[in-house]
Design a protein that fits this description.
This protein has 530 residues and is an alpha/beta fold. 38% of the residues lie in helices and 13% in strands. It has 4 domains: 145 residues, no CATH class; 197 residues, HUPs (Rossmann fold, 3-Layer(aba) Sandwich); 92 residues, no CATH class; 65 residues, no CATH class. The chain has 21 helices and 14 strands. The strands form 3 sheets. It has a 6-stranded antiparallel beta sheet. A 5-stranded parallel beta sheet has the order 12-11-10-13-14, sandwiched between helices. β11, α6 and β12 form a beta-alpha-beta unit. The radius of gyration is 23 Å and the shape is globular. The two termini are 35 Å apart.
């Protein structure tokens, strides 16, 4: 959208609406005042957008990014020019050669769940969601447009039923909006809570969609029976495909074109199978439930009880939450009480869990790494459950299918939309585990539409057997790829440890197999940029 003195890129919807916003309303602030205009965009619209605006007062351009993590924005300095793109490969069109940053890649492999402003490509930085930034990297830091603690720390006044109805209405609004340009949507359904939530919201919004699922050849990762029940209840079609280990090519990274190797090896055959299903269904867009565990506060610890204790003190409500958590975690009541007692006076942790397996000692040297969205260092960040919820949302940012995706058909993760994110952050953490079941509000929101066998599920299978089959069929290829490539040349891996790990029993319980495949993905990704 071209505006006075600038432009807005991406997709935009008016607040509380599923209708695309294609022209600015007459009551919005003038774009030549970027502070007010960007604040208005953040408050009165939602979607996946960024805006380049001209500041008439300073005679400089600034860039604003919306709060949701659904449209990444990357920045690269090339001489006196500043390039911005949602697709890093586009930087080459501006004459910028892209090279791997080996130090940043090592930091990423050490903390793969932490998204930082520094990508794994030299000079390519990501603009943080919810910020207004100057184009000049040497200019002052910028201005925060959106604060998650405005919602996470807000007083809660809704009844249980009102919360369920609000979550339902917000979900219908968001998924209907994202589906408005699609001919027909296919949902990558797993038979679990999150993808079923997306399906039910589409059905309630009267959006044309069907279900597609991918199963392992053995029963350990076959959820097609649940998907068929889901599709039958919602009166849509269900198409199933099977993972094919013979079609796996480890030299072709699933993360191709991305600025970080964040995808898993099995995702290429998964996307290929989903694309085949879309061809049968006539779908041109794929939705998934990625980020649902994070959004719906699947917290497997004692922290929601501490939130309730510190917010309302000891009493019947606190006791009820302790019982809920004991049931949810399958930890006895005495042990749960000991966990809560041990954490009462423990200061909050500011570090992110690292994974040094198979990495060289030099590549795991501790150094300061700042999150892309530094939401935990905040005056209101005292409730451990709320901190855990925000940290879950931050962890999801690396694993979402976003608006800049290259997948064909287009794949997208709608659950981290701004209205859903704001509502879910406002919910007290103990409300999500009510009754001793995780994501309880999300289960209740569409209980009328979904089969009880789906809403009652507390766990589901995954593609573990397929992943291990990939390793079994490609053990030699994994070894040659990881030990004979760029990661070793640049000192990122411990060659002896990798050699030993390559001898692991592919059908055993050793989780190092997954780490090896992640390193193989990183190696293939690095070669794709070389």
């Amino acid at each position: 959208m071209t505006i006075e003195g600038g432009a807005i890129f991406g997709r935009l919807f008016r607040r509380n609406s599923a209708t695309p916003l294609r022209t600015l309303p007459a009551d919005c602030p003038l774009p030549r005042d970027p502070d007010r205009f960007a604040a208005w965009l953040t408050r009165e619209t939602w979607g996946g957008w960024f805006a380049v605006l001209y500041d008439a007062a300073s005679r400089e351009f600034v860039i604003a990014r919306d709060p949701a993590p659904l449209l990444p924005v990357y920045r690269l300095l090339v001489g006196a020019n500043v390039l911005f793109s949602s697709d890093p490969a586009m930087f080459s069109c501006g004459g910028a050669p892209l090279r791997v940053s080996w130090a940043n890649l090592g930091a990423h492999l050490l903390r793969p769940e932490l998204r930082t402003a520094q990508t794994c490509l030299e000079g390519v930085e990501e603009v943080a969601p919810g910020w207004l930034r100057p184009l000049d990297a040497a200019a002052p830091f910028g201005k925060r447009l959106w604060d998650p603690w405005e919602f996470a720390a807000a007083p809660w006044r809704l009844s249980r039923q009102e919360a369920v109805e609000a979550l339902r209405a917000t979900a219908v609004q968001c998924v209907s909006a994202w589906a408005s340009d699609a001919r027909r949507v296919a949902v990558a359904a797993s038979g679990g809570v999150d993808s079923s939530f997306v399906c039910a919201a589409l059905a309630a919004g009267e959006v044309l969609f069907d279900c597609a699922t991918v199963a392992t050849a053995d029963s350990s990762g076959d959820e097609s029976a649940y998907v068929r029940k889901l599709a039958s209840a919602l009166h849509v079609r269900a198409v199933a495909r099977t993972y094919d280990p013979e079609g796996v090519d480890l030299s072709r990274p699933a993360s191709a074109g991305l600025p970080r190797p964040v995808r898993k090896t099995f995702q290429r055959p998964f996307r290929r199978a989903i694309a085949e299903a879309c061809g049968e269904l006539g779908a041109d867009c794929v939705f998934d439930g990625n980020g649902g565990d994070n959004l719906f506060a699947y917290i497997h610890s004692s922290s929601p009880a501490l939130d309730r204790l510190w917010s309302h003190g000891p009493g019947l409500g606190f006791a009820r939450t302790v019982l809920d958590l004991s049931r949810l975690t399958d930890i006895g009541l005495p042990a749960m009480l000991r966990m809560i007692s041990a954490r009462v006076f423990r200061p909050p942790a500011h570090t992110w869990k690292s994974d040094a397996r198979l990495l060289s000692p030099s590549s795991v040297a501790e150094h300061e790494v700042a999150p892309l969205t530094d939401w935990l260092n905040h005056p209101h960040a005292r409730l451990p459950g709320k901190r855990a919820h925000l940290k879950l949302v931050m962890r999801s940012q690396n694993f979402l299918n976003d608006l800049a995706g290259r997948d064909v058909p287009f794949a997208f993760s709608p659950l981290l939309s701004q209205p859903l994110l704001e509502f879910c952050l406002s919910v007290p953490t103990w409300k999500w585990c009510s009754g001793g079941i995780n994501r309880s509000l999300a289960r209740e929101a569409f209980a009328a539409e979904l089969p009880a066998s789906v809403t009652a599920r507390v766990s589901k299978a995954g593609p573990d057997s397929f992943v291990r089959a990939i390793f079994a069929r490609n053990r030699r290829g994994v070894r040659e790829l990881v030990l004979g490539g760029l990661l070793r040349d640049h000192g990122l891996i411990d060659a002896d440890a990798v050699e030993a790990a390559c001898r692991a029993d592919e059908y055993g319980e050793d989780p190092t197999v997954y780490r090896l495949l992640d390193l193989a993905e990183a190696e293939a990704w690095a070669r794709s940029w070389s």
